Amino acid sequence: MNAAVWDRAQADRTPAVGRWSMALAAGAVAMLAIYSQGWVYPLFGEGPGVVAASGLIRALFFPAYLMGFVLIAAAPAQTLRAMARQPFLIAVLLIVAASYVWSIAPDQTARRVFAVYCTSLGGIVLAVRYRWSEMAEIMGACFAILALLSLAVCLAAPSVGVMQTLFPGAWRGLWAEKNAFGANMGLGFVIFVAAAALNAPRRGLWIAFAVLALGLVLMSTSKTSLVSLLLGLGGFALAAFARRGPAAGVAAAWVSVFGLLLVAGAFLFSADTVLAVLGKDATLTGRTQIWTAAMRQVAERPLTGFGYGTVWGESGPWGPLAKIVSEAGFKPNHAHNSWVEQWLGTGIVGLVAFSLTFAQAVVLCVVAVFRDRGAMLAAPILVVYGLMTFTESVGVVYNDLRWVLFVAIAVKLAWPDREVAA
C-alpha cells in the first residue's frame, strides 16, 4: 500500500475511532450516573414506594453493568493486568464470593455478589481505559449532570427537591435526604476542582461547576458535607503544592501531618465541642448505638461474619438484624460504618482484605503526590471517601457510585497513564 492510499485509509478511519471513543465516554458517564442512584427518589419516592419497586430498581442497574462489560471488551488484556496489580482488591472480591458458603441467606449473597462484581468492574475499567485528565472529566460530567438536575428540581419543584417536614427548607436535590445530597455535591466539588487543574482548556467550565457544587452543599445545610468538602480541598491543595518541588513537597507533608494531629487532638480532647459545631450529638445521630449492637453480633461469628449482603435484609425473629434492632431501639438500613460492615458480613478475613486495599491505595497516593499530577484527583477523593467510611457503609458495596470511584482511583494509582489502552 503506497503512502497516499495509507493516508486516505487513516483519514477514513479517524472519524469512526473518534465517534467510538465519544460513545464509550458517554456510556461511562451514564454508567456513573446510574450508580449515583440520583434517579431512585424522583422516580419511586421513599419508604414504601422504594420497597415495592425494589425488583424494578435492581433491573434498572443492568444498563450500568452492560456498559462496564462493553468497556472491558474494549481493553480486555489491560483490564486483567491492571487487576493483577491490586491483589488485595481481588482478595476482597474472592472473600465476598466465598461467603456464599457460610451465608445465612445464600440466595441473597449470590445475587449481591454478582452486583458488587459488576459495580467493581465499572471502576476498574475506568482506570484502565482513561488517563487521569480524561477520568476527571468523565467523573466531572456525571456530577455536573447531577448538580444541574438537582438545581432544577429544587427551583422548579421545591416540594420534591426541598425537605418539607424534617429539616424544612434544606435542599435535598435528587436524593431523599439532605445529607446524601450534600455528600454527593461535596464529592462533586473536589472532582470539579481536580478536573479544572488537569484540563486547562476547560478550566473555566469546571471552576463554574465547582462554585455551583459549593453553593448546593451550603443549601443542603449539611455541615458534615461541608467539612468533608474542605478536607477534600485540602487534599487537593497538598497534591498541587507538592508538585512545586522537593522543598514544597516536604513542607506539604509536614503540614498534612500537623493537620491530622490537630484534628485528632480536637476529637480526643474536645469531642463534644467538635460534634456541636457539626450539629451532631454524642451518639452521631444514633450511629454509636448501631455500632455497639452490630459488634455484639460480630462477636458471635468473628472469623466469617454472616455472609455478604445478608444482615440488613433478613427478617427472622432470632437473626442478627432482630438483635440489632432490639438493642439499638430502631431498624437501621446498614451499619453506618464501612469497617464494621465488612466484619459483620465477611468476618475478620474480609475486614483485613478491605483494610489492605485501602492502605495500598493510600500508600500509592502518597507516592503519586510527589510523582504524578493525577494525585490532584486521587488525593481529594481518597480523603472524602476515607471520611465517609467512618459514618457510612461505602466499602465493597454494590450499585453505589462511591465504591466505583474508590475502585477507579485505587486501580488507577497502580496503572499509570503510559499503560492506558489507545
Structural write-up:
- The longest helix is centred in the C-terminal third of the chain and has 34 residues, at 338-371.
- Helix 6 crosses helix 8 and helix 16 (287-298) packs across helix 18 (338-371).
- Mean pLDDT is 87; it is low at 5-13.
- The protein is 73% helix and 0% strand.
- It is built from 20 helices and no strands.
- By secondary structure, it is mainly alpha-helical.
- The chain is globular.
Structure summary:
The protein is an all-alpha fold and 422 residues long. The chain has helices spanning 3-35, 40-44, 48-52, 54-59, 62-74, 76-84, 87-98, 106-129, 132-156, 158-161, 178-198, 203-220, 223-242, 246-269, 271-277, 287-298, 320-328, 338-371, 375-388, 401-413. The chain is built from 20 helices and no strands.
Characteristics of this structure?
single chain; about 425 residues; mainly alpha; about 0% strand
What percentage of residues falls in helices of 4 or more residues? over 70%
Mean pLDDT: 87
Coarse structural class: mainly alpha
Which spans have pLDDT < 50 for at least 5 consecutive residues?
A: 5-13
Distance separating the two termini: 24 Å
From the spread of the alpha carbons, the general shape counts as globular
Q: Beta-strand level of the residues, as a percent range?
A: under 5%
Largest sheet: none
Q: What is the N-to-C succession of helices and strands?
A: HHHHHHHHHHHHHHHHHHHH
* Helix count, DSSP H or I runs of 4 or more residues: 20
